[in-house]
Amino acid sequence: MFAAFTQSLALVLTPMGLLSILGGVLCGIFVGVMPGLSSVMGMSIMLPVALSLNGNLGVLMMLGIFCGAIYGGSITAIMINTPGTANSAATCLDGYPMAHKHHQPGRALSISTTASTFGGLFSAVMLLWTSPILSSFALKFSAQESFALALFGISVVASVSSENVLKGVMGALIGLLLATVGVDVTTGAYRFTFDTVYLTGGISNIPVLIGLFAFSQGLINVQESFGTTRAKVNTKLERVLPSKSDLVTIFPTLIRSSLIGTLIGAIPGTGGDIASWVGYNEAKRWSKHPEQFGDGAPDGIAAPESANNAISGGALIPLLSLGIPGDACTAIMLGCLMMLGITPGPLLMTEQPAKVYMIIVGLFFANAFMALCGFAGIRIFTKISSVPSIVLTPLIFVFCFVGTFAVNHTVGDIYLMILCGILGFFLIKMEFSIPPIILGLILGGILEKNFRRAMVLSAGDWTTFFTRPISCVFIIIAFLSLIYPFVLAHLKQRKAAKKGEQA
């Protein structure tokens, strides 16, 4: 393992490797600062650029975007009370009052940058510690376990990613249906190709990702915010580095919230928005002065920012060890890794240990660069947030078209991207969740391949999935994750009915 770690350092500590991480961090911060954009959109738009680079450089760039975008959302949350990403919504509660009510925007931004860096580095350490342990456990996996694991990943995201469970399941089924398009690798039969050459190779992930996440959001921006003016940003900063007293005050919160964020990130189907709110609530619960929360409390900024940035390493734990994305960002990361010849899952640590350590080391450097860029460029980033929607929205569309065409140089990809974007627009308006569709598309092939392998190995005996303990447990958990929301809703209705009868 030491040799693999040394090899990973050689892959990262090159001028191009470090530059790729730095470029990704800057792009991520730019995306995060822009209200209306998100880390998912940033990663989907920049994915074609990453794929055009050398495999290792593309992975390092995506890690930088992942970390930078999560942090960037806190800048607009503090400066104009508008979270650049959903992960930074809780930061508005105390960040904006400290910046404007108490006239300390520099202090608020410095606390946010410190907390974000701490959370990211903490999660990277946890990733380094836990990945080998989980991978050794996952070596016991065969086709049955891999099928059950993929089913578990899809079911959890489908049940957690949408308020309506049925809509989440329908989204996952849409993704699975898209995964069946193309030539059957087992029989050679054409499936849903409609006699077109373009579809014989299957549905490409890139146009679907860009369409569902980025192009659809551009359409929403046109509908909801085109022509509106952005609030004026107060860019006068009194300091960009945290004081010693602030560091002492927020340190216990940093530890607690980083642990919360890492644990929540490791649970498939969760995300930074959940982690930030849980971190904020726990900080308020443990605070000696809870009455200060909502009025510019330092812990109220440190808690959500350390929690949501700890997601970066936490979400990579199940991705690298088990091949299950923890959220939409890691779903895109999964697609990126597979296209670059890296297949996350049980065998990754044994077959490509240097790649695993390269990702972990890259995550460390991504957070380090995020801190440097954050403290050095705060004044610049606050000005970026003033870009009007009339400029931002056309840029989104330009990046979508250029990024889609740049991968395969095929016009068909552009048509597919536009179609998926329009579909995503209506699905979002109907309150469908997009991540289950992406997960269904990405994991659909894995699901089908391992199901067929298992049936061949067991001579058609479907009970083989339940006679093997690990696969049986994953299938049961997948089933429970789907019925749990229904049971919970039923219990809430019964409780409400009892209260009504008592009243």
Tell me about this structure.
There is one protein chain. The protein has helices at 2-12, 15-33, 39-52, 55-79, 92-101, 105-138, 143-160, 165-179, 205-225, 244-265, 272-286, 298-322, 328-339, 348-351, 353-384, 389-408, 411-429, 435-457, 464-467, 469-502, and strands at residues 182-183, 190-191. With 503 residues, the chain is mainly alpha-helical. The chain has one domain (2-458). Strands 1-2 form a two-stranded antiparallel ribbon. A hairpin with a 6-residue loop joins strand 1 (182-183) and strand 2 (190-191). The termini are far apart. The mean pLDDT is 80.
Share in β-strands? under 5%
Q: Count every helix, treating DSSP H or I runs of 4 or more residues as helices.
A: 20
SS elements, strand count: 2
- Total domain count: 1
In round numbers, the mean pLDDT is 80
Radius of gyration: 23 Å
